[in-house]
Design goal:
6 strands, about 180 residues, Rossmann fold, alpha/beta, about 20% strand
Amino acid sequence: MSKNILVISAGPRKGGNSETLADAFVKGARESQNNVEKVSLNDKSIGFCRGCLACQKTQRCVIHDDADMIAQKMRSADVIVFATPIYYYEMCGQMKTMLDRANPLYTSDYAFRDVYMLSAAADDEEGTDSRAVSGLEGWISCFDKARLAGTVFAGGVTAVGDIKDHPSLEKAYQMGKNA
């Protein structure tokens, strides 16, 4: 049975290493006959959450920008995949802002069950992505029916294109095939 998969590429660089990981996941997921949509945040207008909590009653954000539309896509996806560069051992600000703006989903009848994280960083030490993964796990823990289904980390990649031939691309592709 095919799934509706939403891939959110949070990196600010078009064609960056985390986006390349996202594309590998997308390729695998499409080859397994899933319905896949990729959204790149790098060209979107996404304001910061105001903390008004109006969304808890309406399931929509009072800020009418691209984040509101993306959150609605998140609500109906069976699977959500986040791809982020690791900046200062954390997820990039664009991803964190989008997670905050997904607050309308908290009280909604969301469809997603599996959440994945793909990340890339200049540092290749084990655990480089651990704070970013922990941050996403914190968000996921607010959604009782969801779980962190898997992560892929590509270390030692800095400039656009450094990820070419990195073993993480095959891992992301296989994860997409099995999502």
